[in-house]
Amino acid sequence: MFRCYFRRIPQLINSVDKHFFNTVAKKANILENYLSVLGKSVDYVGIHGPTAEEITKDINLSNKTCLITGANSGIGLEMTRCLSSRDCTVLMACRNPYAANIVARNVCGNSHLLKLYEINLASLRSVKKCSNEILNDQSKIDIVILNAAVFGLPWTLTEDHLETTFQVNYLSQYLLLMNIEKILAPDARVVIMSSESHRHVSWDFTHQLSPTEEMVSLPKHEYTSIRAYNISKLCGVHFMHYLAYRWLKSGKSVFCAHPGSFIKTRLCRNWWPYEALYTIMKPFSKSIAQAASTPIYCATSPELKGLSDAYYKDCKRNEESELAQNLHLSFRIYDLTRELLHDRNVAKDEPIRLEEVVAFPETKHALDEGMVANLSG
Ligand SMILES: NC(=O)c1ccc[n+]([C@@H]2O[C@H](COP(=O)([O-])OP(=O)(O)OC[C@H]3O[C@@H](n4cnc5c(N)ncnc54)[C@H](OP(=O)(O)O)[C@@H]3O)[C@@H](O)[C@H]2O)c1
Question: A GO molecular-function term, please (predicted)?
Fold first, then answer.
């Protein structure tokens, strides 16, 4: 009996060996595939949906002009490339227009359709200067994509004494848009780059009733970079509600677009653990070309004609968070925004006049008395 077992030992070793080496080989294969994906983006259409290029394949944008903030990098650059390849003139509002010019001309085929503007969103002065230049140069803008953002910064204050993430991601882009509102085409579309992370803000009832500067422009002792980012993105969704309301009587529309999560761009550059996390997640997340699809869909798709005030994810309508749906909060954040800008002497946009608003019978139901009183003030 023992002899029988002894005879089988070499056989056993052989099979264990084969199994072992097969497993190791498979693992090495997976690892090799994984590492190759880390190096370059792969468009897994089935999993992550179409690219911006595919979304716009039947769309001609030859008479259109689009303004994009942060157009020199990541998703902004891909949107610039895609729109200019459809003959759209793209106004690239970038922090460093000289560097942006070089990048864009390397990437975009129709580089004669690109125009660069310098803007530092951490400075309201710079925003004002940039908007004046745009107003001087342009007579009509059809699409605006408020794309620029920062993430993962240590706590810093801007020259306007506001927390940087809040000012760059929200306040300055609010000001830019309101400054150029008068040259928006009658059927203009505005896309605010959003993020699912807006869902992670929780404010109690009292805070929702009257948001304060400290709630949006976080002081150092309350600051974490994720928190600041989430709040800035929540403010962006409320900005959409406010704009939709402001433009109720016009043909202009506004959308929020979530491009996807963990897209490996320069957004995560400010802190190495984020850089590592985004690198690890790269094989499982959208490519930059795919991430650009939802904002480009919102900006150009004929399917959205006549619609406004909607949050999109994966090119589909999605409900924003409960806090983001709170219209009362939208108007309170609008008040706060105007106050912050007013204190810094740059509040430009005219508030809506009450008679314009109540001319729409359906909006009467949407408003509570507080809002009406506030609008008239
Ligand atoms: N990547 C993701 O996983 C992800 C997920 C959800 C939402 N998003 C949103 O998608 C949008 C695009 O992000 P991305 O991933 O493409 O990031 P990105 O490559 O870092 O692009 C951000 C852009 O914003 C610009 N910017 C930053 N600070 C600025 C300032 N002070 N003044 C002017 N421009 C400034 C950057 O310019 P510089 O090159 O000069 O710094 C850059 O062009 C953002 O709104 C982001 O919140 C991204």
Answer: oxidoreductase activity
8 Å CB contact between 98 and 76: no
Is 223 among the residues known to form the active site? no
| Ligand 1 midpoint to CA 49 (Å) | 22
CATH of the structural domain 54-352, one choice from 3.40.50.300, 3.40.630.10, 3.40.50.720, 3.40.30.10 = 3.40.50.720
Q: Whose CA is nearest to atom 5 of ligand 1?
A: 261
| 117, 170, 174, 229: the active-site residue | 229
- Model pLDDT, residue 352: 54
Cβ neighbours, 10 Å, residue 291: 29
pLDDT of residue 224: 97
Token digits of residue 292: 């650009």
Can you give the length of the chain in residues?
377
User: Could you tell me the mean pLDDT of each successive run of 10 residues in the chain, 377 residues long?
Assistant: 50 49 50 54 65 94 97 97 96 96 91 96 97 97 98 97 98 97 97 97 90 97 97 98 95 97 94 91 92 98 96 97 96 95 76 45 38 34
Query: How is the chain split into domains, by residue range?
Result: 54-352
E strands along the chain, which residues? Answer: 65-69, 89-94, 114-118, 141-146, 184-193, 253-258, 310-313, 316-318
- The pLDDT, as a whole number, for residue 317 is 97
Task: Tell me which residue has its CA closest to atom 17 in ligand 1.
Answer: 267
Question: Distances in Å between the alpha carbon of 124 and those of 172, 176, 227, 342?
Answer: 6, 9, 23, 12
- Structure confidence by residue, pLDDT tens digits, 17-27: 455 445 444 55
Q: What is the pLDDT of residue 225?
A: 96
How many other C-beta atoms are found inside a 10 Å radius of the C-beta of residue 9? 9
Nearest-CA residue for ligand 1 atom 44 is 149
Using left for φ > 0, alpha for ψ between -120 and 50, and beta otherwise, residue 315 falls in: left
| Cα-to-centroid distance, 71 and ligand 1 (Å) | 8
Which tens digit of pLDDT belongs to each residue from 345-365?
Answer: 776 666 555 444 433 333 333
Rg of the chain over CA atoms, in angstroms?
25
